[in-house]
Amino acid sequence: MSVDEKFDNAKDKVAGKAKEVEGKVTGDKAREAEGKAQGFFGKAKDKISDAADTVKDKAEDAVEAVKDGVDNLKK
């Protein structure tokens, strides 16, 4: 996950929490729900980015294993 992605996700989580608290303090249920949704969205983007990084790493490992196998066959 890039630094920009981490920053963007953290921004969503912090802004969401701020909206949620604002909604609780003012009694605005819609604002509170909006904040919860935005915070959840930031957390979800973190999980998706982490999963994508894991898949990418596994794919790179598989490609390297195939390359190593081909190189061993050539010897």
UniProtKB/TrEMBL annotation:
Q: Where is this region: Disordered?
A: 1-36
Could you tell me where the Basic and acidic residues compositional bias lies?
1-35
- Pfam families given in the database record: CsbD (PF05532)
SUPFAM superfamilies assigned? Hypothetical protein YjbJ
Using the record's annotation, list all stretches that form the CsbD-like domain.
Answer: 5-57
State the similarity comment: Belongs to the UPF0337 (CsbD) family.
What is this protein's record name? CsbD-like domain-containing protein
Lineage, opening ranks = Bacteria, Bacillati, Bacillota, Bacilli, Lactobacillales
